[in-house]
Amino acid sequence: MYLRKFEQKDAVYMLEWMHDKEVTKDLAADFEKKQLKDAEEFIISNRQELKNLHLAIVSDTDEYMGTVSLKNIDKYAQNAEFAIIVRKRAMGKGYARYAMMEILRIAFEELELNCVYWCVSKKNKRALKFYEKHGFHEALDIADRIKKRYEEITDLKWYSVLSGDDYQNKMLERKMIAGCKIISIKTIPTVDAGELSYFEAIQDIPFNIKRVYYISKVPEGVRRGYHAHKKLKQLLFCPYGKIQLILDDGNRKEEIILSDPSIGILIEQPIWREMLWLEKDSVLCVTASDFYDESDYIRDYQEFLKFRYCIKK
Length: 313
What we know:
Elements: E1 2-4, H1 11-18, H2 21-24, H3 36-46, E2 53-58, E3 64-74, E4 79-86, H4 95-110, E5 115-121, H5 125-133, H6 144-147, E6 156-162, H7 170-174, E7 176-177, E8 180-184, E9 186-189, E10 195-198, E11 211-215, E12 223-229, E13 234-240, E14 243-248, E15 253-258, E16 263-267, E17 272-277, E18 283-288, E19 297-298, H8 301-312
Parallel strand pairs: 4-5
Antiparallel strand pairs: 1-2, 2-3, 3-4, 5-6, 7-8, 8-16, 9-10, 11-18, 12-17, 12-19, 13-16, 13-18, 14-15, 14-17
Helix pairs in contact: 1-3
């Protein structure tokens, strides 16, 4: 499957989903009265579009399966509205997931946008399930100029993704790194106003927080860490920038890049860690289960391996 520009042969399949009530029942627009010429005219007019990017989702045999779009592209505000529709025969086969990931990549990497947003009817259970399954967060504080487009429609749920977010959920799909949990930090996104991420002791992380510290103003390419803890439990996350985290449990060493503030690494056992700053001025935040205690540190790797061996016996 891949994305491409529309071709006139797509019009027939486009009309198919327009007349499929199961596909269009929860959409705002009225597609039932559309005719073949409407689909053909849309394909032609799309060639002249500047503020909207509409692409065909096609199979490996080049059969049209749906449309994915970036609408109302605002280069000044650096945002755009996402939209997608797929034919019934394409549902549940990965077309929607692929097309969404690819159009978001285009938005952030090629168009250099900062935010992509969209809305869906709360009655559209299929769409809501899709977005929740793939880890997208409900957005609040939607700008009035954006909501005005849908002022006649009630019960809408809004979503947004910011540049730098792990929108492909690659980290969460890993679940673990060197025996440490990769967790999702609760996040409330907005449009044009950033995101608010939060967590609470005991409820969201399995310990009381007794200490919080952060490492900042680190030049690019600098490594830090080189230690482990005997008993201390910690949550590590990167609210700004990009940091490579290297974790070692004595048997295996694994790496992960922290760049999404809604992703955290939960360390609940003795783990040797190193941090490499991939971008200047990136920030690493740490919440800890206890007060500072130098005797809890292991700063020699060979001592760490001996300690791990002893606690396994």
